[in-house]
Amino acid sequence: MPDSWQQANRDHKAAHHELLTLTASSDRCLRTVWLNPFDNQLSVAEMEITQGCFPSLAVNLPETAWDEREIHDMFGWTPTGHPDLRPLIRTPRWPEAYFPLRKSQQMPQWLEVEPDLPSLKVEGDGVTIMKVGPTHAGIIESGHFIFSLIGENILHLDAHLFQNHRGVEALLEDTTVNEVAPLVTRICAADTVSNQTNWASAVERLAGFTPAPRTVLQRIILLEAERILSHLNDLAQIPAGVGFQVAHQRALALKESWQRSLEFLYGHRFLFDTVHPGWTRSAPADLLLNSLANLRRHWVPWRQLVVGHHGFADRMGGIGQTTLAQIDRFGAQGVAARAAGKTFDARQSTAYYEGFFTGPVTRSAGDVQARFDVRLDEVEASMQIIESAAGQLEIESPTEPEFLAPKDLSGRIVTFTESPHGLNSHDVTLSNGNVFRYHIRSAPFRNWPLLAQTVAGNAVADFPLINKSFELCYSCTDR
Amino acid sequence: MAKAIRSLQIRHVDAGSCNGCEQELTALTGRDYDIQRHGIDIVASPRHADSLIVTGPVTDTMALPLERVWETIPRPRVRIAFGNCAIGTGVFQRAYASHGGLADSDIEIPGCPPHPETALRLLSEWMTSHQRNRQTYVSKVTNLGNC
């Protein structure tokens, strides 16, 4: 069994499948789910964990290294042969025998010690250690970074995340089907529609319910509206990373005007609580198209400003380069992967996007400039998708079938969407209308280890710029 | 001697937020809200600050770093809970690694996340209704007789 576990997963990777989830559950089931991007089929590999151990995949598949460390922290089961089993989420403050995802755990009594974890540093002549965080000199999420520097250049970065770990998965396992939506909505403000859609489709598919075409169109519009919002935020932060204040402030103003439109259309500036199992908040097509036209009116001159600015281009080109080989090795996703030439966007594997999605936006340079440019093009592609979906809203009748999730809904399912950050998967197990296991795997979780690799060799002063161009979310990684 | 509050310099610490509150704080610094014209600003060091804004339900890992930032802020100083999670009314209060919000906050700015307009209004109102003393901020409404 262990051999076949490793072999099966290696085979999927060799066939260029995308890893959706690798996780365990308290019934000692270890499971990976892979997406075949060529025929859009999902495949499952499973094994039972016996004697608290399972064979590690991390040496051959580095993208699984963090997943296995997470399982080690949360369940206490050991991936045998894992090259780096330092705690990922646990801190020295956690009681030794506390494993939050094993069932029937009492609330922990935290130990009165510092939360710092052992770090990996480079030692030797001329090497300086620079620690940053967990609190930062700006409005940023919390993370702790240990840089080993030689002169001004980064030799090695050890990123300690999970400062924002709330315990969302364990909290979800305490809920009934009707209580999940408000929690899932608030895992991450930048990927909220994607998370809500994953949950809604999980319930609908387990219940054998097909949402009305109009509901599906509204979901596409909301997913794209969220992509525009999140990309505008990232596009505003990248100029800030090089001190290009005019572009930064004007992009923030663009984002603000889009948020005001979303509040007017859907009642929330971040689209919280808009997608539910069976129904979706809707907005009239004409108002939606008006808002989009207004955004475009300001977007076009802003794009001209940033694209035509040579000084800005000079600061982005060649900085923070990744190669396609690194992207594949780490299973990286989203904008960062496409900017290095990976031709995968989960929308191409999502049935309801057929006829709307025209293919992934890619670049090949893999630097800050490429990541900036992919976002520029994706914003415009999203505007076009919203326009064509809004056009069809008129045709579809507004009557919606009633849907109530069955009280005894049971089963296990994996759903995914392309969030603004990349491939976002939920592995949901329901038992008699209660959540038995809820696993959330977002793209930034895969991309963080790649970021640490990418920054090596770059000037430490460029770290904020490179970091902003990846725009990795802490909250959906830490959960 | 008491002085009216004309400025509020804020240090921000994220203690488990979903990033929505951060984005709205950033929006406050943009040209549409422009908190600087109200004398309010987000500063880079707690040494430059006279207030602490906390977002998120206070995760266990951030609980100590958060208090360390608070200890570094010179007096008089004020603790601000930004958003429902920090106030203690958010959806993640019961999560095992959440401490259930910011203890002993002086100002609460509700919302999930708070609307920038709400935040601006509540901060401005607090500034006009309080005075700066050597050690603490005192409410003009209740303590006028002592000044």
Can you walk through the features of this model?
- The complex is a heterodimer of chains A (479) and B (147).
- Chain A is of the alpha+beta class and 479 residues long.
- Chain A folds into two domains: 114 residues, Beta Polymerase, domain 2 (2-Layer Sandwich); 287 residues, Cytochrome-c3 Hydrogenase, chain B (Orthogonal Bundle), CATH 1.10.645.10.
- Chain A has a three-stranded antiparallel beta sheet.
- In chain A, β1 and β2 form a beta hairpin.
- The longest helix of chain A is centred in the middle third of the chain and has 29 residues.
- Chain A is globular and about 60 Å long.
- Chain A starts with a helix and ends with a helix.
- The relative contact order of chain A is 0.14.
- Chain B has 147 residues and is an alpha/beta fold.
- Chain B has one domain: Rossmann fold (3-Layer(aba) Sandwich).
- Chain B has five helices and eight strands; from the N terminus they run ββαββαβαβαββα.
- In chain B, the strands form two sheets. Chain B has a five-stranded parallel beta sheet with strand order 3-2-4-5-6.
- In chain B, α1 crosses α4.
- Chain B is globular and about 45 Å long.
- In chain B, 48% of the residues are buried.
- The chains are: A alpha+beta (479), B alpha/beta (147).
- At the A-B interface, α3 and α7 of A face β2, α1 and α2 of B.
